[in-house]
Design goal:
The complex is a heterodimer. By secondary structure, chain A is α/β, with parallel strands linked by helices. Chain A is 50% helix and 7% strand. Chain A has 22 helices and ten strands. In chain A, the strands form three sheets. Chain A has a four-stranded parallel beta sheet, sandwiched between helices. In chain A, strands 8-7-9-10 form a four-stranded parallel beta sheet, sandwiched between helices. The longest helix of chain A is centred in the C-terminal third of the chain and has 18 residues. The radius of gyration of chain A is 22 Å and the shape is globular. Chain B is mainly alpha-helical. Chain B is globular and about 65 Å long. In chain B, helix 2 packs across helix 10 and helix 8 runs antiparallel to helix 9. Classes of the chains: A alpha/beta, B mainly alpha.
Chain lengths: 450, 217
């Protein structure tokens, strides 16, 4: 057992899954002098600084409007949560080290060098108080994709060993064991067998060849295992040649969330290799927000060339199945509001698919404002794993509850298991009467099997 | 050489040269950086229209955000429209640009432009007060924000003084007005005033990247 496992055992019994008793605060990883830590962080941030990021760095006009789009600022009124302020140190580093006038800034010392103490303070702003939900991107009059820059800043923070401990711990575990939450390959295979028995449904695992490779999130394996059976019910209903694979099942990517680019690649490559090994034409991603961004939009770039298969979120696959007449559904004429997972919808583009599925179910849908623009659940970007962020997260969750309540809908539905555990945790904390329901689960429960 | 000759002559020529060179340097400095090839399968192949769309659509706030930033939107619209009218629709300015470029266009009555000029200056003062008092703006502001404000407000203020012949001889006031414009031109490429060119590039970039994914803009 590694030190991290001994010091940070998993907490699998709570409403959200994380590690137990994080002890180190203002967390640092590794031994190095402060100056070295700062130098690594800043060098890492400006390294590979492409045209897109540079354009964004040059364009901020300090209008402060992004504050009003951020749930952390709106709920606390604390200006430090202004999204663009979260990048202030990195903007300084960019201007001083990489911008077109960097030589002027350095010559006259116009931008002071960042200190280790500042970087430690910024850890809260880069991790605890940003889910990279991208609402700030939607309001910025200059169109700056602030969320993408925060993701880039996380790379720098990881390299400098300045990641919140729990997030670092689950990412390290994911890299070492193949799952951030102890859902190892054998655990997953056991759970598939259990679900197959429990639901009397065939769950193919490790087929050598299959048209469709289905992936899953550790949160689902450990906390919502019925998802395994729901996948099986739907795909068997469709008559698809599909499989789970124990060499590439885990879709969550804590490499991405923590900021470790190498681990992110390792995690994505497992699924890519498994899909290639079984000759899959389609890889289905589970109800997981960041998993969609990580593989659908970044996977091919980590692979270095276009993927030899298509990547679809489960909601997209369901919508296609319905359109092609392969999924036949009973009507479920309930009053519903749909929570758009930020990375699938707002930042991923799969906004229409879940609505097509709900239309086929015959639900009465009440939107929470403009589709794709609703408030984040507050647990994305790895924030739900960070214990010290709990109080702040609950404050942002109040905003989400208010938005859900305003619709007066009876059911709250979404298609992200990370959102789901955040909703479950918030529901328990506030003793709220709304339980988030999974779109896949609802579809699986309303199949018309002939 | 009189102050007015200096202002109209070498000062304007050098500041224009720095203005153009500085803009080119800053734009080329970022645009020539590498762009990674995106191997992901695009949801939409043609992304150009997505970029163009966001350049225009982001001029209008989304209904979702209108209320929370109402003061900011009101001040910004008033200031930008006012500045446009004062710079381009004031007859002496048009004539000045016509002498330089040969281009001409219809202008507005001077009396109307004076009122707009005064309103623009008042809005600028309100924006400064807001920047110095709003907790968010106060925290994120730096030298660039205040200096850019000053070099923008000065030409408006000196222009109003010149047309109203207040404080000094007309030629002196006009020379100061032109010199304040020179200062604005010299500072333009180095600070946030560059957003007048960068907004097209940064909005266009996000518009195109998000169109590729079919993501919300």
């Amino acid at each position: 057992m590694s030190e991290i496992v001994d010091n940070n055992p998993l907490d699998l019994t709570g409403t959200r899954i994380s590690v137990q008793k994080p002890e180190v605060r203002y967390d640092v990883q590794g031994e190095m002098p402060d100056e070295e830590r700062v130098r690594i962080a800043m060098r890492s941030f400006v390294k590979d600084f492409g045209a897109h990021s540079a354009i964004y760095m040059e364009s901020c006009i300090h209008c402060g409007m992004c504050a009003e789009a951020c749930h952390y600022y709106v709920q606390t009124g604390d200006p430090k949560y202004t999204p663009i302020w979260k990048l202030e140190l990195f903007k300084q580093a960019y201007k001083r080290e990489a911008g077109p006038f960097a030589f002027v800034y350095r010559l006259f010392d116009l931008k002071s060098a960042v200190t280790a103490q500042q970087l430690q303070q910024w850890q809260e702003l880069i991790y605890d108080s940003c889910t990279m939900c991208g609402r700030c991107t939607m309001i910025c009059p200059m169109g700056i994709d602030i969320a993408a820059l925060v993701s880039q800043a996380r790379h720098a923070m990881f390299e400098a060993g300045l990641v919140p401990h729990e997030l670092w711990a689950v990412a390290e575990r994911a890299e070492r064991e193949g799952s951030p939450l102890g859902a190892t390959a054998s655990t997953f295979a056991d759970r598939c067998e259990w679900m197959a028995d429990e639901h009397e449904v065939e769950v193919p695992v490790d087929k050598e060849r299959a048209d469709v490779l289905v992936t899953i999130s550790s949160i689902e394996i450990m906390k919502y295992p019925n998802t395994i059976a729901d996948f099986a019910k739907v795909l068997n209903h469709m008559g698809v040649d599909w499989t789970f694979r124990t060499d590439g099942y885990e879709a969550t990517n804590f490499g991405l969330l923590s900021g470790n680019a190498a681990w992110q690649k390792d995690m994505s490559m497992k699924m890519i290799k498994a899909a290639i090994a079984c000759g899959a034409k389609t890889l289905i991603l589970p109800e997981c927000g960041h998993a969609y961004g990580a593989l659908r939009w970044q996977g091919a770039n980590l692979y270095g060339k276009p993927l030899p298969f298509e990547v679809l979120h489960i909601s997209e696959y369901l919508a296609r199945g319905i359109k092609e007449g392969k999924i036949r559904l009973r009507q479920w004429p309930e009053s519903v509001t749909f929570h758009d997972p930020c990375q699938v919808s707002r930042r991923g583009g799969a906004t229409a698919a879940p609505r097509e599925v709900m239309r086929a179910l015959g639900v009465k849908l009440t939107e929470m404002g403009e589709p794709g623009l609703n408030w984040c659940c507050g647990g994305g970007g790895g924030v739900v794993t960070i214990h010290r962020a709990d109080e702040l997260r609950y404050k942002t969750f109040e905003l989400k509850m208010k938005q859900v309540e305003a619709t007066k809908a009876e059911h709250l539905v979404s298609s992200c298991s990370n959102c789901r555990q955040t909703f479950d945790d918030g529901q328990a904390h506030f003793q709220w009467d709304k339980t988030m329901e999974s779109l896949l689960e609802i579809v699986a429960a309303n199949l018309i099997n002939t | 050489m009189d102050l007015i000759d200096f202002a109209r002559g070498p000062a304007l020529q050098w500041s224009l040269a720095l203005f153009i060179f500085g803009i080119a340097w800053r734009l080329i400095g970022v645009l020539l950086l590498h762009r990674k090839v995106d191997h992901s399968l695009p949801r939409h192949q043609d992304t150009t229209m997505g970029g163009v769309r966001l350049i225009f659509s982001r001029m209008w706030p989304k209904p979702e955000f209108r209320q929370s930033n109402a003061v900011h939107y009101a001040l910004s619209y008033t200031f930008h429209i006012g500045l446009f009218i004062v710079i381009f629709l004031f007859r002496p300015h048009m004539l000045f640009i016509r002498d330089l470029t040969g281009l001409s266009w219809p202008t507005l009555p001077s009396g109307f432009v004076y009122v707009i000029g005064a309103m623009t200056l008042a809005t600028l003062v309100a924006m400064l007060v807001r920047r110095m008092s709003h907790p968010v703006l106060k925290m994120i502001s730096n030298f660039d924000d205040y200096f850019s404000w000053a070099v923008t407000a000065l030409p408006v203020a000196t222009g109003l003084l010149a047309v109203s012949h207040l404080g000094a001889r007309y030629e002196t006031l006009l020379a100061l007005h032109i010199l304040s414009v020179c200062l604005l031109l010299v500072w333009f490429p180095f600070g946030k005033l560059m957003h007048a060119t960068l907004f097209v590039i940064s909005r266009g970039t996000t518009g195109a990247l998000f169109e590729r994914k079919g993501a919300s803009t």
